[in-house]
Amino acid sequence: MSDIENKGNEGERELSKKERMAIPRTPMPEQEPKQRAGNFEEVTLGYSDEKAVTEATRCLQCKKPKCVAGCPVGIDIPAFIDAIAKGDPAAAIAKLKETTSFPAVCGRVCPQEEQCEKVCIVGKKYEPVAIGRLERYAADWEAAQGEAARPEVAASKSKRVGIVGSGPAGLTCAGELAKEGYQVVIYEALHKPGGVLSYGIPEFRLPKDIVYRECEYVESLGAEIKLDYVIGKTMTIDEMMEDGHDAVFLANGAGLPVFMNIPGENLNGVFSANEFLTRANLMKAFKFPEYDTPIKVGKKVAVVGGGNVAMDAARTALRLGADVHLIYRRSREEMPARDEEIHHAEEEGIQFHLLTNPTQIIGDNEGWVEEIEVIEMELGEPDDSGRRRPVPVEGSESRIPIDVVIISVGTRSNPILTQATPDMELNKWGNIVADPDTLATSKEGVFAGGDIVTGAATVIQAMGAGKVGARSIDRFLQGLPLKPEPEEEEAEAEGAAAK
């Protein structure tokens, strides 16, 4: 047995920090590329108990852990990892659930490499500790036991809070308020809960059983989820307040697709990534005809974009039998998608057309997509995003035979809710204006967070907004100032550290 495998035995020598740092990062087992390209089963397979203990042993248990500050929801990362290293996943999941309601989700889809793992001290010299993979391990261990750890819930309060949207921001806010004893009702526009977790992320990255299990966990805390409620149509925000809600949190996301405004976008066979993924994920079109949701895939698909949504659409189309071409106007280095998702797409056979941009979509005599015309790009000076601006190369146009085009160049807020609330302040993009510290909107008692405020962002950032919103609503309903005094914040921090 190695020192790692022997860890925890009586009389075992404790590894030094230098020895722990030198342990190689534990790879995540996954399906072979050719195999997974033909199914919708989860790509990554998770750590075994032994692999999890080995990886957890790499954590240095820093006295001032930067990883905690790097987490938008402030998970006590060293504490839950230490529990895994000691062979106690039950303690690990209990520690996680003090702060997050969705460890199984975040362990799979959050960009830890840009957040907690980016500032890991081990990563300064070696590869960072696999924090996300360990979070997933603890959550999957709990699921295998068949019972969920549940934090203490405060005595029931008379105040009632309405939450619009059951995505990560809404569910997080609901969970936090339910733990404080408030009567919480979530209003979801679709027929299944989960928001973008349900309609936007494919089964092979985030199985829907996991999403629904996390939703059930929030319900177990006391929150109620009402489906098929389109706030702005079924009921307005004013009507919610009149109906007995003492506060409202808006977390309805940014699900309205953006198009490129190029010729041919109105042809048959052109989809937004939102529609394509919603049909495949939420409505189970990939199981047609077992599920009665048709989806046109075609033989050759062009996906336009370089973000995670573009990767999801491309990899979904591949699994549905298409030859997939991904068109992105910048280079691979500028792609906003996670490196892991780009790597998996390349492994599976997605054909990348980089430094390339569509100029028009050409159809046949019956109005169906037949070709896509593209132009070569070169990188110029950096733009507002900090990435080098793509500039067309004159005279470099060419055409690719295609029968389906999926546009994935961004989303913005759906105006249904905001048009029904004319006294709500919006910015020039149609997003709700909310105080960055408290998430209070221009409307008394109404708070907003997540993509409806920031535009499209990450799951964990939306969860962070949900926690801020819950804290502000709690203070609002108690009649306290929304922004705590400095000494109050210091006392809260000391109390959290003591726990």
Explain this structure.
By secondary structure, the chain is α/β, with parallel strands linked by helices. Helix content is 34%, strand content 15%. Helix 5 (77-85) packs across helix 8 and helix 7 runs antiparallel to helix 8. The model is unreliable at 1-11 (pLDDT under 50). The radius of gyration is 24 Å and the shape is globular. It has a five-stranded parallel β-sheet with strand order 3-2-1-4-16. Strands 6-14-7-8-9 form a five-stranded parallel β-sheet. The longest helix has 20 residues, at 459-478. The chain contains 19 helices and 16 strands.
Summarize the structure.
This protein is of the alpha/beta class and 499 residues long. 34% of the residues lie in helices and 15% in strands. The strands form 4 sheets. A 5-stranded parallel sheet has the order 3-2-1-4-16. Strands 6-14-7-8-9 form a 5-stranded parallel sheet.
Structural class: alpha/beta
User: How much helix, percentage-wise, in residues?
Assistant: 25-40%
Strand order across the largest sheet: 3-2-1-4-16
Shape descriptor reads globular
Distance between the termini: 36 Å
Q: Strand tally, please?
A: 16
